[in-house]
Recover the amino acids of this structure.
């Protein structure tokens, strides 16, 4: 577990990448470092939005609960991302829950303090706006990529999205270093476990992907091109 933060750590986060060393030190002064075990909830939908979190290592799942009590994951957080990213300056409660997919190390800053620091720095405000704009574009692309697709194609595009969002380039292809079970993929793609198993088996048979210890490697990212999705194009461009 990290016991302290450096300006180098802080600047790895997109919204802080333009900060001066003095600005970094202000962030560090208000930061609290914490560790969570796999499966622990960091906050729950509806809780007072008192903290903004910054992931140093591991993976976080963001999820919402519908009126029937069913849980719906809608995004995953990778190292050096802030969460929750929406609701700055306006939300008083968390709009979703966050759970540790793996053991994680994070730091958090009281929301009121961080928002005050951002308001005092016009360059930082512009950086935050740019960051949130790019986030909205990415979310829109994912939603567009899933519209009007059959269930199997939704699974494929979900894997393409995870590759572009979480993937790391390796000698064998694009590794998604966050573990996923068949149920995880079904919940995230909005399909059934049976559909996911069928789609995964087909992709494995074509040597498009392989799975070891719940980690997916995409060996043929070009497979996803021409699949009625901007996500697949982004998958290729991200690692070209």
């Amino acid at each position: 577990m990290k016991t302290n933060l450096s300006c180098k750590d802080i600047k790895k986060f997109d919204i802080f990448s333009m900060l001066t060393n003095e600005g970094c030190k202000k962030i560090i002064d208000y930061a609290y470092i914490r560790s969570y075990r796999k499966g622990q909830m960091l906050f729950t939908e509806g809780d007072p939005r008192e903290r903004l979190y910054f992931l140093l290592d591991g993976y976080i799942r963001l999820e919402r609960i519908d009126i029937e009590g069913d849980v719906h994951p809608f995004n995953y957080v990778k190292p050096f991302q802030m969460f929750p990213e929406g609701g700055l300056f306006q939300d008083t409660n968390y709009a979703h829950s966050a759970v540790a997919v793996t053991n994680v190390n994070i730091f958090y800053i009281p929301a009121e303090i961080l928002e005050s620091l951002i308001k005092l720095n016009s360059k930082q405000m512009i950086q935050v706006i740019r960051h949130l704009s790019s986030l909205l574009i990415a979310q829109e692309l994912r939603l567009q990529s899933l519209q009007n697709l059959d269930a199997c194609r939704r699974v494929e595009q979900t894997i393409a999205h995870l590759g572009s969002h979480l993937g790391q380039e390796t000698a064998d292809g694009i590794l998604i270093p966050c573990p996923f079970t068949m149920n995880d993929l079904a919940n995230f793609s909005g399909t059934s476990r049976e559909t996911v198993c069928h789609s995964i088996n087909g992709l494995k048979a074509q040597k498009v992907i392989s799975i070891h210890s719940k980690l997916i490697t995409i060996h043929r990212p070009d497979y996803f091109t021409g699949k009625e999705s901007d996500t697949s194009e982004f998958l290729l461009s991200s690692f070209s």
Notes: Residues 148-238 form a domain with the Arc Repressor Mutant, subunit A fold (CATH 1.10.10.10).
